[in-house]
Amino acid sequence: MFSEELEKYNWEEITDKIYSKTESDVAEALSKDYLNPDDFMALVSPAAAPFIEPMASLSRKYTQERFGRTIQMYIPLYITNSCTNHCVYCGFQHDNPIKRIILTEEEIELECKAIKRLGAFENLLIVTGENPRDAGVDYIERALKIARPYFANLSIEVMPLKSEDYYRLTQSGLNGVVCFQETYRREHYKNYHPKGMKSIFEWRVNGFDRMGEAGVHKIGLGVLIGLEDWRTDVTMMAIHLRYLQRKYWKTRYSVNFPRMRPSEGHFSPNVVMSDKELAQLIFAFRIFDHDVDISLSTRENRKFRDNIATLGVTSLSAGSKTEPGGYFTHPAALEQFEVSDGRSPQEVEESIRRIGYEVVWKDWDKSFDHV
User: Which positions, given as ranges, span the membrane (predicted)?
Assistant: First the structure.
């Protein structure tokens, strides 16, 4: 399991290595066709700041070679804000005095129909809080079965599950799983997750192994930018990605690194990442791994999303509602985070087409596996 692999790496030592990188280290990394984690450290280091333009050019080149001039569209569907965790940065955390909503089967279907009226979405991300008693595997499975007739590709962002549960869900229409480790800094992890199942670092970080064992088609990794030093956290995620690719080589992978947005939790970020630094990170990940899907949500503003669309990102959300039932049944419920790009899917699509790129609403179907 990856928790054992992670013991080989010391947070402070990795941090020191990143901040000791020089411009010659960056230039050497950019000259390579295949990068190792040490090269990645150079590309996310402060020393890489003067290399943003050549990094952007290389990132665009690799992205177009692997994905063409396309952007895939997806949309999240929050089906419950009920949660037993106490994450200090999240509006859904257990102690917040908010109205808790668990959508009924009828409401889930109404939300699916409302989303289809928004645009030609075929990629749906189903999101829940972590409440295994009232919104556990059975509930998630029912949601997948309800959504399957409306969408070709179904992913979930839910509590980490057992391997057999992930496999069970793949038999009910599941294509992908997204999970945010939030931070790889084990010694500080519980400061942000003091109670609940999410407080168990090993259970969460080893969830990706369980996904791989279950044969999940696509696994999404992510860290939350704002908790710890972002350069070290994303380096740990790059190491994790390489580990998973070696062990579960048939699986596709995606990465996401959302910057913290205001929420009902009123948590002030410990680290603030600039737009330029986020662009540097996106370029670094594309140069590090030419095939990984890089996703950007509506947390980011319109201008940044438009500018980065041709430079390394391959998936964008649009028209997102981050409250349960926000598309139709409960439009006034509390959002998990504040959306920054509030354009309609049609407006985002038109913006993508204006820059000479094609919008892809669907990129994979299970039937293709049998061709």
Answer: none
